[in-house]
Structure formats: C-alpha cells, structure tokens
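Appendix C: a fully annotated inverse folding record. The material below is reproduced so that readers can follow the format used throughout the book. The structure is listed first as tokens, followed by the designed sequence.
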C-alpha cells in the first residue's frame, strides 16, 4: 500500500462486447479479470475502477435480456472481483446491472483488499435522451456510498449523475470526499462533447479529483481524470480516444490542500442562497 498522502488507482477503460446471455457475460467477466490481473502484476495499485455496467453491453438488445444479464448483489460480478481483490490485495469498484425482486438498478459495488463486499451504489439519475433509454428498464437509487481507501474518502457516481451539480456538491461539502469516481458509458451521441465540460466543472468547483471513466470502443473512449485545480500548466489526464487502456493514476492529498488554500471557492460560499428577491 502507498502512504496516506497518495492513492494509486488503476483505471480500466475496457471494451465490452455485445451479449444477451449469462454465459456470454461470464466469459467477458473472466477475460476482463485476466486483463486486470496482468496489468496489476506490472503496475501495483490500491484501487481498481471499472466503468458503468462493466459486466454487460449498454444496448437495448442487452437491456431486453436483463432476466439473463442482471445479477443479485453477490452474483457473478461480485465473485469475479472478490477473488481478484483477495488474490492481489487490492480494492475494486465495478459496475453491473443489479436485480432486486422484480426491479433492476444500474449499480456499482466495492470490495476491499480481502474480497469482502463494502457496499453498493445505485444510479440516482436515469438518462432518457440521446442513445440512453434507462427509464424504460431501471429503477433509480435512494442512497449514497462513501468509501475509505488508504485514508482517502471516495464516492462513486454513475454517468448522468455528474450533470446534476447538487449531488457532487453534497458529496464534496456534506461528506468531505477527496475524489468522485464517475463510472460512465458515454456513447458518442449529441451529448458526448459536453461530457468533459461537466466533469471539469465538478472537479474545480468542488476542489476535488474527479475520475470520469468510460468504456472503450469506436463509439466510446476518452476517459479523463480532472484535478482539484487545472490550468495550462496542470492539465487533466486524458485517456485514448477509442482504444482500451489501463492507466495508473496517482491522487495526492497535498494537491487537494494546495488548491483549497490558494482558491477560496468553498470557503466563500454563503450558508444559504435562499435570499430575498
């Protein structure tokens, strides 16, 4: 493990093939786990992060087969990533379609370095525009998840969540997170080119890291890590435009402290903006 001043994240921009059966899902999970294991042997990390619905394709054909592809909380995805976490001593945050009774959720779950389930988060804001059709298939979540990894406070959000500023503000101010882990499935539709602007704004206005991780492929890619402060001399880390990549990122607590000391955005907020008009 690294010291408490830094956190090493292996961010996995992975390709996800079309699928409609549980057998295809499980083959994909096994192949992805093999890729992550190989990457971790070369570049050890404290935390592995995977994108939204990392276990399955983001497509109507797959959503029509949620009876096959959705899982209970401790289903195929949990067993895959729990085993990897336990074997390699690393935390893992992974996306999957969660089934609870007759409802389905777009979820992320986290396991610790011993393979134990820490908790899960269900997407709060469901997208129904562009290439997205989530309200037809999924229910929205109702609670947050805060993780502690190597002394860093982390919070996952999922795709469309980043476009609603109140959520990121609540995580940064109300829960004191050091980094927002934004797992996405950003298809290159009309909304794609506004995505990075939202991520950059959430990072700078809340003076925290935001890792925005997409899947790879011709219609996806271009993940980004935004810093608590960015300018011409301190740019974001941008992933390949299309191809798969596993990128080792280092989050530094001193960088957060420096941004907050130099720029007083958070300190200058009023207690309330419910003012007379």
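Designed amino acids, in order:
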């Amino acid at each position: 493990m690294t010291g408490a001043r830094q956190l090493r994240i292996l961010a996995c921009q992975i390709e996800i093939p079309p699928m409609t059966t549980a057998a295809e899902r499980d083959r994909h999970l096994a192949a992805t786990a093999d890729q992550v294991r190989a990457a971790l042997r070369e570049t050890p990390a404290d935390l592995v992060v995977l994108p939204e619905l990392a276990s399955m394709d983001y497509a109507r054909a797959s959503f029509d087969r949620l009876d096959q592809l959705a899982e209970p909380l401790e289903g195929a995805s949990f067993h895959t990533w729990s085993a990897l976490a336990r074997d390699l001593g690393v935390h893992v945050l992974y996306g999957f379609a969660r089934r609870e009774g007759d409802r389905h959720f777009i979820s992320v779950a986290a396991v610790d370095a011993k393979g134990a389930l820490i908790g899960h988060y269900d997407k709060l804001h469901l997208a129904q525009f562009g290439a997205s059709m989530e309200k037809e298939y999924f229910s929205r979540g109702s609670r947050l998840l805060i993780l502690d990894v190597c002394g860093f406070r982390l919070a996952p959000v999922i795709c469309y969540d980043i476009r609603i500023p109140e959520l990121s503000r609540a995580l940064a101010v109300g829960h004191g997170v050091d980094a927002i882990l934004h797992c996405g499935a950003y298809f290159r539709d009309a909304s794609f080119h506004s995505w990075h602007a939202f991520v950059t704004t959430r990072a700078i206005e809340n003076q925290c890291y935001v890792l925005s991780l997409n899947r790879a492929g011709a219609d996806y890619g271009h993940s980004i890590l935004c810093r608590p402060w960015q300018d011409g001399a301190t740019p974001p880390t941008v992933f390949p435009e299309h191809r798969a990549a596993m990128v080792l990122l280092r989050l530094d607590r001193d960088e957060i402290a420096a941004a907050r000391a130099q720029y007083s955005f958070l300190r200058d907020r009023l207690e309330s903006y419910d003012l007379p008009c």
